[in-house]
Protein: Cytochrome c553
Amino acid sequence: MAVALAFAGTATAANPPGSADLEAGRTIFETVCAACHGPNGTLPADSPLRATMNPPPADLADPLFNSREPAPDWEMVVRHGGHSMGLSEQMPAQGGALSEADVRNVVAYVKTLADTSDYPPGELNFFLPIRTKKAFPEDEVVWKSRYTDRPGRDEFRNVLEVEKRVGKRGQWLMEVIHADNGVESEITEVEVGYKHVLAWNARKASILSGAVVVAFPTDGSSEALAPYLAWGRQWSDRWITQASARTTVPFDHPDEGQLELTAVAHYKWTPWPRRVFGAMELTATTPFQDDGGDRVKFSAVPQVRIGLTRGGHVALNLGVEVPLSDQPYDYRFHLNLLWDFADGSFFKGW
Structure:
């Protein structure tokens, strides 16, 4: 654990101080933004203006909302208007009136309107990989579908995952797993768990979380404990890496468990969310007991993320898992459909 914490760095929730001029940002906010967003970031409930705005402006002084929204996304909204990111069309573009420095200054000032010191910043909410666990706490629904091509009998596996943010650093999660092998089609397992952000470093753009998950099979076999660590870091504007380590330990036979290590590198070539982004993921799985043959099972998962909405809160992941060692399948196709419901309805911003 000490090694993992060293990777994440010191826990720092506030965005790192930069070259932004907060006083200049305050002046711009009061002159340009306060009329619609309120002088302190909250438009009063009795404001006549609220009735004319659909939807009403977000509460910038809410620490959860303020922290989970990445500053670069807000800068794009200020420059190009709300419509550009699937938000309110009543939010005008200010790119023609404000310089790049002005945009950075006003967004940096808006970030001070709420005390977000205990909340992980939204800049650390990286792309969802296919196999690697994410560290950032989510409000998401994810449908995961997998087709496995294997000698003798192919298999479909579908997972419905619901993740709900709780508190400042936590997230509850539940997965319902369905399998169809051509002979039997049934729900095979339900998983419930909790994830908590252990540390983050805004200056280094890194984050570390730990989770505890309990799996409940439907066939009467042993329940299993599946804790994991998840880590992520953004190295530059374009490169993001994430990694996770997960063990599965059956309650009745702990010696029959396994360890899974995964890592992924994403190439983020543009800040616009509705684009196609490539990634390469590697996995290694090993049982606690030696079962003969290749004890460690390796695979590679080249994949793409496709942003479906202008703000990227609905996205599609497609990947092909190719075994790099002796495994009982030829290849696997993965399809994940993600909906971040904290950012609005499924049909918003298409």
Q: What stands out?
A: The domain at 121-343 is CATH 2.40.160.40 (Porin). The chain has five helices and 13 strands.
